[in-house]
Write a structure and sequence with these properties.
Blueprint: E1 4-11, H1 23-37, E2 48-52, H2 56-59, H3 64-71, E3 79-82, H4 88-101, E4 107-115, H5 121-129, H6 144-159, H7 163-177, H8 191-196, E5 199-201, E6 204-205, E7 214-223, H9 224-230, E8 235-244, H10 280-293, H11 298-301, E9 304-306, H12 312-321, H13 330-335, H14 366-370, H15 374-390, H16 393-397, E10 409-416, E11 421-429
Parallel strand pairs: 2-3, 2-4, 9-10
Antiparallel strand pairs: 1-7, 1-8, 4-7, 5-6, 8-11, 10-11
Helix pairs in contact: 1-3, 4-15, 7-12
């Protein structure tokens, strides 16, 4: 298995709608940006591609990935489509990693898009709900906000998590996005704003939920030889992991906690796991990625995380799955300010609990503020992590407010369904 590096990337602005652009043009804009950012990278050097988009229903077009490949001028080189619900972009990134790590390709383009504005919101929610078990969960009201409301209700019951802690996540991510021109819904929010916004599924308000979006993103991955030849600042992908779980939540068995290197079975002896408050697939993905990257204590060894915050509640749940804090402590982790950027004023008070090192989570604004064009989202995370590790946030965003000083290692995380597919990838700055 060969070392793999990310050498360039690009994204479009995520928006509620881009009626003037089809999916091919959006991907080409992101692709052109990636080519322009790395002189020497040409179409001729790209050996093939992986294309990600969640649903054929939004485009009303089967085999749309082949159309993108043609539009980019990459035919007749190999290409394939990846689909895996909300984790589609993360799976695409890892599929491109596999193509290079295996030696099959020297340079692989991972590209993703979604055009969710082409249907009404209720119809879009129906399409998304088809990623649940349509024989069991979907017929009894299976829209995703309802699933996540149920899960966080259990989290609140088990661990004392509060709606105010969830609201702090929304405040954080929307405030971060004020400095990200690619974000769909930046904003200066308060806890009261979040809690007084329209209720969608108790306790989740509309500001606890991400938005459907149009957008595209690309990441270019390469072998070590090509990366050293083309880039002065390549970023190495040092760990990849993926976990899965039963589509039907009632089929998920209880068992022992999947332990990370810094944890012990004793500290979880009274925890019912995974219950509906935790994502077993996310913990497996993290364990595999950490093992490959040599990470033994993620809260101390990661400098930032871009995770799949489809809901404020799922961000809190994912803190725990990734081992940034213990299971049950996700709400307190947010309350302490640990996932907040230290140099941004959020208008919040924090608990003063100093158990955790600060690990900024979703400095980009995450899905809550950037939007969620599903096939592009995981690749957008990769691009932002890449720019962070290059120290190039100021160059690409027009300001360096979101730049984390001396960031050396970051993590990206994609999540599908109620935790059916989850990917974790670790990226590191090259010295």
């Amino acid at each position: 298995m060969r070392p793999v590096y990310m050498i360039s990337g690009g994204i479009t602005k995520f928006a509620k709608a881009h009626p003037e652009k089809d999916f091919r043009l959006m991907v080409k804009e992101a692709f052109d940006y990636a080519l322009a950012d790395l002189p020497g990278l040409t179409r001729e050097l790209i050996d093939g591609s992986v294309c990600s988009y969640f649903s054929d229903h939004f485009t009303r077009q089967l085999k749309a990935g082949a159309m993108v490949q043609d539009y980019l001028g990459l035919c007749p080189k190999p290409s394939r489509r990846i689909e895996g619900g909300g984790a589609t972009g993360g799976l695409c990134f890892q599929a491109a990693w596999e193509a290079v790590a295996s030696g099959r390709m020297e340079v692989c383009l991972s590209m993703g898009f979604e055009t969710m504005s082409r249907v009404n919101t209720w119809k879009g929610n129906e399409f998304i709900a088809l990623a649940s078990d349509t024989n069991f969960d979907y017929p009894v009201g299976g829209f995703y906000t309802g699933y996540y409301a149920m899960m966080v209700r259990r989290h609140m019951h088990e661990f004392g998590t509060t709606v105010e802690q969830m609201a702090k996540v929304a405040v954080k991510n929307h405030r971060n996005a004020l400095h990200n021109p690619y974000a769909q819904s930046p904003g200066e929010l308060s806890i009261e704003d979040v809690r007084s916004s329209p209720m969608v599924a108790t306790p989740l308000t509309i500001l606890d939920c991400c938005q459907m979006s149009d957008g595209a993103a690309v990441a270019v991955l390469a072998s070590e030889e090509v990366a050293q030849r083309l880039s002065s600042r390549p970023v190495r992908i040092t760990g990849v992991g993926c976990g899965t779980d039963a589509m039907r939540m009632a089929d998920r068995p209880r068992g022992e906690v999947i332990l990370l290197p810094h944890e012990s079975a004793e500290e979880y002896r009274d925890l019912t796991y995974p219950g509906v408050h935790s994502f077993r697939g996310g913990r497996m993905a993290a364990k595999l990625a950490y093992g490959m990257a040599g990470i033994t204590d993620p809260a101390r060894e990661l400098d930032f995380v871009e995770l799949h915050d489809a809901y404020t509640s799922s961000e809190i749940q994912t803190y725990e799955d990734l081992g940034l804090c213990r299971y049950g402590e996700g709400g307190s982790f947010a309350d302490a300010g640990a996932p907040f950027l230290p140099h941004i004023t959020y208008g919040l008070s924090f608990s003063g609990d100093d158990r955790w090192r600060r690990v900024p989570v979703n400095p980009s604004g995450g899905l809550l503020a950037c939007g969620h064009p599903v096939g592009a989202t995981g690749l957008m995370q990769a691009v932002f992590a890449f720019w962070q590790l290059q120290g190039a946030i100021g160059k690409h965003l027009g300001n360096d407010t979101l730049q984390i000083r001396d960031a050396g290692r970051g993590l990206i995380h994609s999540h599908a369904g109620t935790g059916t597919y989850i990917t974790v990838s670790v990226l590191e700055r090259s010295e």
